[in-house]
Structure formats: C-alpha cells, structure tokens
Design goal:
The chain has 168 residues and is an alpha+beta fold. The chain has helices spanning 33-37, 53-65, 67-72, 86-96, 111-116, 159-167, and strands spanning 12-17, 27-32, 41-47, 77-82, 103-106, 119-122, 128-131, 134-139, 142-148. The chain has one domain: Glutaredoxin (3-Layer(aba) Sandwich), CATH 3.40.30.10.
Length: 168
C-alpha cells in the first residue's frame, strides 16, 4: 500500500468536461496523476463508487462544503477518485454540484487503486474491484498524510479530518 512520503503512481485518470476551455475538449480528457499533482497541494479522496449511499450522502458533499476552507488552508485542488468511467463521474459531478470545487476523476480500470494498493474487492456484491475509502494530502506529488478507512466505515477520510491535517 502507498505510504507517506511515496510519490503518486504514474497513472492516467480520466476527467469528463462539459465545456471546452483551458486546453480541454468536451468529453473525457486524460489526467496524468503525477504531472497534474506536481508543484501543487492536493486534497485527494477515494471512494468505492459514484451514486452509492455513503459516497453521495456524506463523502463528496463534505468536500464540496469544505472546499473554500481547504483552499484557504493551502490546498490548490481537490480530487475525488473512483473506479467508474468518466461519463459516470461527469454525471455524478452534475448531481453533486461539484462545479469547480472538486475534480471528479475516473479510475475506470482501477489502475490508480491497484498502483496505490488501495483496492476493495466487492465482486460478491456485484461491484467488482473498487477503491477503498480513503483520503490523502499530496504535496508536490508526494503523499503527506494518508487516512484509510476500515471496510464499511466512514470515520477518517472525511473532509473535516483532512482539513484539520492540512492546518497542522
């Protein structure tokens, strides 16, 4: 499993864009995790799936609500990573009203989850290989803090916990 001090893996995530701008075309666009994190402070959180109960009711809304406070504390970007395709993540972003507050990044083939060792096998529940629930603070591409949830829990990966860690 990825540890504090490790660099983010060399993995390409996908991000859905509904409008053209800043060099991005409409539709799924590749996001090189290492290059996109270079020189920035990123509040990154991963979760099992779009439109799932805890993820939709608590996890994403907490980061949307705390986005301004995280930015005031020095966070440049907030990333939500989930094992879904870019179209689903785009639809979920609209549903959650993430706007410019949270980048909704698709890990469609679980490459990021596998590379970080943060996988959750939900095959028996019809969901296949997913990401476990976690949060991390990434500074210049390296993990500064890491909060991994126990299966079925939502206690340490929330926005308030990561915000407190950013302020330290």
């Amino acid at each position: 499993m990825i540890q504090i001090g490790d660099q983010l893996p060399a993995v390409t995530l996908m991000e859905y864009s509904e409008v053209e701008g800043n060099g991005c075309s409409i539709g799924p666009n590749p996001v090189d995790a290492q290059k996109s994190a270079a020189g920035k402070t990123i509040a990154l959180f991963g979760l099992p799936g779009a439109f799932t109960p805890t993820c939709s009711a608590k996890h994403v809304p907490g980061y949307v609500q705390n986005a301004d406070a995280l930015r005031a504390a020095g966070v440049d970007e907030i990333w939500c990573v989930s094992v879904n395709d870019a179209f689903v993540m785009g639809a979920w972003a609209r549903d959650q009203k993430t706007g410019a507050k949270v980048r909704m990044l698709a890990d469609g083939d679980a490459a990021f989850a596998k590379a970080t060792g943060l996988t959750l096998d939900l095959t028996g529940k019809g969901l296949g290989l997913r990401s476990t629930r976690y949060s991390m603070l990434v500074k210049d591409g390296k993990v500064a803090t890491l909060n991994v949830e126990a299966p079925g829990k939502f206690e340490v990966s929330d926005a308030a916990t990561l915000l407190a860690q950013v302020k330290v």
